[in-house]
Amino acid sequence: MIVASREAASMSSRKLAEQLGVEVVLFKERIFPDGEIKICAQSPKLLSGEDEVILFFDLYPEPNSRLVGLFQSLDIVRDYSPESHVTLIIPYLIYARQDKRFLEGEAISLKTLLSIVEGFGVERLISVDTHNPDAMREYTRIQFDNIAAATAIALHAKEKVFGGRDFIIISPDLGGVERVRRAAEVLDLQHSYLRKERNRHTGEVSVSPTTTIPMYGRGVFLLDDIISTGGTLVKAANALKNMGVEELAAGATHLLLLDRADKRLFEAGYTRIIGSNTVETPYSEVSVEGLIAEEIRKS
Ligand code: R5P
Predict the structure, then answer these.
(1) Using alpha carbons only, how large is the chain's radius of gyration in Å?
(2) Active site includes 196?
(3) Angle at the Cα of 52 from the Cα atoms of 31 and 62, rounded to 5 degrees
(4) Could you report the per-residue pLDDT of 216-265, keeping only the tens digit for each?
(5) N or C: the chain end with fewer CB closer than 10 Å?
(6) 107-126 pLDDT, tens digit each
(7) Among 208, 179, 96, which Cα is nearest to 144's?
(8) How many angstroms from the chain centroid is the CA of residue 98?
(9) Separation of 166 CA from ligand 1 center, angstroms?
(10) Which residues in the chain belong to E strands, given as ranges?
(11) Which residues, 6+ apart, have CB-to-CB distance to 95 below 8 Å?
(12) pTM score, two decimals?
């Protein structure tokens, strides 16, 4: 087994390789003045003869150019190691939210991405808290393993934010309820969800309460897969404050935090933001390399 990775991977593929006790081949990226990119593997011969290549590729930020880098890297792996089993690790799976045709004529971006990856003969795909794991299984025959960092994030919140105090874990939408249900079960806490509606033409989001669980005077940990603009969680905070919630903290596996979303979250009343290091931010308090290594060792 060998690990291969972008040279500039912000999440350390070296740490992963260390945990697995194997070597790393690094893929160096060059960007030309016209925006084209070229990947070049350092010591590519190390790939030859390996029975398994674990390609670790972080695709955020600059998702579109990194995708081209991923395709070139997969091609290099295939050329130098045609017989190997290839496992692809994408900690934050980009394009996963466009998992269906919401409006007539739209691309199903997730399906497009998966069919290209499948075309390179990838046999296993590992990701962390993918937006909709069921859609993954619908669009590809590749073995898909979804790692639950959300549970580790909720545990961290329990220890570092709420201390011994009681709190409830809430998903801002129905789609994320399974993620919070699992975390709440492990931590022996209550969970619930809010109703989120999105106008597919304008992108406008509204969030309203659904829960019949009493909220007055309680602490809430809002847990989502992604915080992008922060709009969802700001609206969730407003709905929950109207229900008398006393303490609010925000968690998400992938913290994109666009346009100072962190500032907007603090202004909305969150006292803390906690996320994983699938995207590096000052709030990435939970590391996922260990969870990924454990998942690889399982097979
Ligand atoms: C979408 O359904 C996701 O689960 C997140 O709720 C969404 O991406 C958050 O985006 P934003 O922070 O821009 O509201």
Answers:
(1) 20
(2) yes
(3) 25
(4) 999 999 999 999 999 999 999 999 999 999 999 999 999 999 999 999 99
(5) C
(6) 999 999 999 999 999 999 99
(7) 96
(8) 14
(9) 26
(10) 2-6, 24-31, 37-41, 52-56, 85-90, 122-128, 143-147, 167-171, 190-193, 195-198, 205-208, 219-227, 247-255, 270-276, 284-286
(11) 63, 109, 110, 112, 113
(12) 0.96
In the set 111, 158, 196, 235, the catalytic residue is: 196
Structure tokens at 147: 């790692």
Measured in Å, residue 129 CA sits from the centre of ligand 1 at 13
214 vs 73, which has greater pLDDT? Answer: 73
Instruction: Please answer whether residues 113 and 75 qualify as being in contact, where contact means their C-beta atoms are separated by less than 8 angstroms.
Output: no
Across-strand partners of 85? 52
* CB-count burial class (<10 Å; 0-12, 13-18, 19+) for 270: buried
Q: Six-digit token pair at 188?
A: 């022996």
d(CA 252, CA 169): 12
pLDDT category of residue 159 using cuts at 50, 70 and 90? very high
The CA distance from 299 to 295, in Å, is 7
* Probe residue for ligand 1, chosen from 178, 179, 196, 224 as the CB with the greatest number of ligand atoms within 8 Å: 224
